[in-house]
Write a structure and sequence with these properties.
Elements: H1 3-9, H2 16-22, H3 28-34, E1 41-45, H4 51-58, E2 62-67, H5 70-79, E3 85-87, E4 100-106, H6 114-124, E5 125-138, H7 143-152, E6 169-183, H8 185-193, H9 196-200, H10 203-219, E7 229-242
Parallel strand pairs: 1-2, 1-4, 2-3, 4-5
Antiparallel strand pairs: 5-7, 6-7
Helix pairs in contact: 2-8, 7-10, 8-10
Amino acid sequence: MSNQSQQRSLSFGAEAAAYERGRPSYPPEVIDWLLPPDAVDVLDLGAGTGKLTTRLVERGLDVVAVDPIPEMLELLSNSLPDTPALFGTAEEIPLPDDSVDAVLVAQAWHWFDPERAAKEVARVLRPGGRLGLVWNTRDERLGWVKDLGRIIGHEDDPHNHEVTLPEPFTGVQRHHVEWTSYLTPQALIDLVASRSYCITSPEKVRTRTLDRVRDLLATHPALANTNGLALPYVTVGIRATLAD
């Protein structure tokens, strides 16, 4: 990972609260698809503020959260006080060998060194265990979401999410779900403020970007004078199994 990329990956702590308020959760059917049916012990790697962790804890799973950003872990621990929240990275996971049935990574695999991370994930997974990756991507095919992309940067096409997982991972599969997140205008501002590009931009650029989003909210016919926004997403899941 380049220094610039590493700085961006660690920048989220500055806007941890905005991240928690603005970022969407994940559709239950994608989580069902990612998890092996007999999973008990699950690692949420790069857990952030616990968006995915919460969904896993609600299922009665024994969850451990790992993240390299203290501000993120603090928010996670405030909302999930009974869930172990450990400081660590994908390249050095603070868990023993063969300790979990599944490792899930939400919105974070692209920040990792993939070869080192895959080796560490294989170490902590039990034989036959599952690695599951998930991303939320704004669906920019429609009006105002496309306009938002012009302001804050377009999303990559979710159907082109290419991830190569080295051995000993096998049986790589993809799945995607279209759904809608409902949020307030302020939550949309928080969503933009929590993007790494926005956090690491100079103050002038950051202010201008947020002002343009506020202007879009005030003037776009689909958004003006409304308290609730419907933001369409495509969620992409990728899963693979650790060879026995």
